[in-house]
Amino acid sequence: MTAATDTRKPETVDAALTVEDLVVEFNVGKGQTVHAVSGISFTVAPGETLGVVGESGCGKSTAGRAIMQLPSPTSGSIRLGETEMTALGAEELRRSRTQLQMIFQDPISSLNPRRKVKALITEGPSIWGGKDKAAIEARAREVLAEVGLDPDMVWDRTPRELSGGQCQRVCIARALMLDPKVLICDEPVSSLDVSVQAQILNLLEDAKKRHGLSLLFIAHNMAVVKNISDRVMIMYLGRVCEIVPAEDMQNRALHPYTQLLLSSIPDPDATVTAAQNVEQKVIELPSPLNPPSGCRFRTRCPLATDLCAEEVPELRLVQGGHQVACHNV
């Protein structure tokens, strides 16, 4: 049964982060271009966690880095509140980016191995005009305690003297020191043990509530994303397939790709849905160097028609907070 369609764009007023038609492409020589991100649009509301999930290589981490202007996107609009990030000069960008912080996937390599924790944590406020060294250090100790680290124990240690979980806590503390409005988490728990993953996820939830943060949480683990997010955005080969409220994802997902992802998660409490019966075509996976025309998932989709090869499906609103890009649902 086809869902009722509402072609209106999602509300963007007062959004903490607004991304429109974001494109990221890389020239790899010999006339070839990697189409990493191809015109994605979404918003993150104040205090909201938007999860971003998809297969490895779908462009989710590239999108996160492009929002940070690391590097700048090929085209598109990125607004942090009312500030258009892509239009800023180098100095203005540096100042605005203090409100947009990122936690990287590998917590150890994202920290300078030669510097001690005290230097890593206090560097940001010191650069941006903090002249009261005692006040900065007091704030740093407070934030370290907030993320579950004993300041006296880690203060004079280097990253190689800490565990992966401790390094990730230092990364979170470093980001919080600048009081950002939006925190981009690029697979922050993928390299950690399962028990430590739960601790970091709880820490991020607590930090979000305490500091009024908006989170863009990037991961490939559907279960993790579903549990921490308010809404979930599913990406495939550089495009958005669906944006769905997290509580509705298990039983109300409409896009065939979302259903296939969900069917791979063992969930004894879930009701039986079509997601468990969808089968994909078995073919060679498409490449971002030469993505399929129209809907990029059509070469694997059991619902694909001729229209799917001819037209790119637009992301449309089907019901409150639920958007989908598919010709056949």
Automatic annotation (TrEMBL):
PANTHER family: D,D-DIPEPTIDE TRANSPORT ATP-BINDING PROTEIN DDPF-RELATED, TRANSPORT ATP-BINDING PROTEIN. It comes from Rhodococcus erythropolis (strain PR4 / NBRC 100887). Keywords: ATP-binding, Nucleotide-binding, Transport. GO terms for biological process: peptide transport; transmembrane transport. This is Putative ABC transporter ATP-binding protein. Gene3D superfamilies: P-loop containing nucleotide triphosphate hydrolases (3.40.50.300). Residues 17-262 form the ABC transporter domain. InterPro entries: AAA+_ATPase, ABC_transp_ATP-bind, ABC_transporter-like_ATP-bd, ABC_transporter-like_CS, Oligopep_ABC_C, P-loop_NTPase. It comes from the Bacteria. Transmembrane segments: none annotated. SMART domains: AAA. GO terms for molecular function: ATP binding; ATP hydrolysis activity.
